[in-house]
Specification:
Length: about 230
C-alpha cells in the first residue's frame, strides 16, 4: 500500500458493530498520532495519499471506515458515526507507543462533524477540519435554496459545536470548493472560540484538495501541530 507498513484492524463498537481500520505507524521521527475520519464518499482505500503524506511527515495514522462503508459491518447513521469514532479512538490509544497527549483528530468533510462531536467528549491535542461544512442544513441551503430548513435534519451542527470546542483547531478549505463553499469554513472559523487557524488553499475544490495541494496541506498540519507544543 504505497510502500506503507500497516496493520488491519477489526474495531468493535459499543453496540457490537465490527468496523474495518488500518493502523499505519510512521517510520519517521514521530511527532504525533492522527485519528482520521474520512468524508461521505468512498472509504479508507481512497485515502492512501492522505495517509502517506501524514506518515512521511511523522504522524502515526489510524484510518477507519464507518459502519456500512468499505468492509465495515452495519448500516450508516449519524449516531452510528459517533459510536464508530469512539471505538476508533479506543483502538488508536491501544496501539504501542501512542501517547494521548499528542493525539490529533482529523476530519475530512463529513468526518469533520464526526471528530468535532468526539472532541467535545474526549478533547485531543488538536482538531484538523478539512473541507468541513458548517451544518448539513447549510449545505442543503446552498444547493436547494427553496427547500424549507425544517425538512432537513439538523445533523452534524458543526458551527454550533465548534463554539464549545476546548482543543485548538486548524480549518483547511479549498477556495473553489463547489460542494461546500469556502464561506462555510469562514463560518466555522468565526464560531470557534478557542485557539484557531484558517488555511484557504487556492485553486483547490472539495474532492481534489489533497490531490492538488497535498504537500501544502500536510506542511500546514505539521507546522501548526509543532507550534502547539511550544
Amino acid at each position: 500500500m504505497a510502500g506503507l507498513e500497516y496493520v488491519d484492524l477489526d474495531i468493535t463498537t459499543s453496540d457490537g458493530v465490527v468496523l474495518h481500520g488500518w493502523w499505519i505507524p510512521t517510520s519517521r521521527p514521530r511527532i504525533g498520532h492522527v485519528l482520521f475520519a474520512h468524508g461521505n464518499g468512498g472509504n479508507i482505500g481512497d485515502r492512501i495519499l492522505h495517509a502517506q503524506l501524514l506518515s512521511e511527515a511523522g504522524f502515526d495514522v489510524l484510518l477507519f471506515d464507518y459502519r456500512g462503508y468499505g468492509s465495515s459491518a452495519g448500516r450508516p447513521s449519524e449516531r452510528g458515526t459517533y459510536l464508530d469514532s469512539r471505538a476508533a479512538r479506543t483502538a488508536l490509544l491501544a496501539q504501542d507507543g501512542v501517547a494521548g497527549g499528542r493525539t490529533f483528530y482529523l476530519g475530512e468533510s463529513l468526518g469533520g462533524g464526526v471528530v468535532l462531536e468526539l472532541a467535545l467528549a474526549h478533547p485531543p491535542a488538536g482538531v484538523i477540519l478539512t473541507s468541513t461544512f458548517s451544518s448539513v442544513r447549510d449545505v442543503a441551503r446552498e444547493h436547494f435554496a427553496i427547500l424549507p430548513s425544517f425538512l432537513v435534519p439538523d445533523a452534524y451542527p458543526n458551527a454550533r459545536r465548534i463554539a464549545e470546542l476546548q482543543a485548538p483547531v486548524l480549518i483547511q478549505h479549498g477556495a473553489v470548493d463547489d460542494l461546500v463553499p469556502v464561506e462555510q469554513a469562514h463560518r466555522n472559523y468565526a464560531a470557534a472560540a478557542g485557539q484557531k487557524e484558517l488555511q484557504v488553499i487556492d485553486n483547490a475544490g472539495h474532492n481534489d484538495l489533497v490531490v492538488l495541494a497535498g504537500r501544502e496541506w500536510v506542511t500546514a498540519i505539521t507546522s501548526w501541530s509543532s507550534r502547539l507544543s511550544m
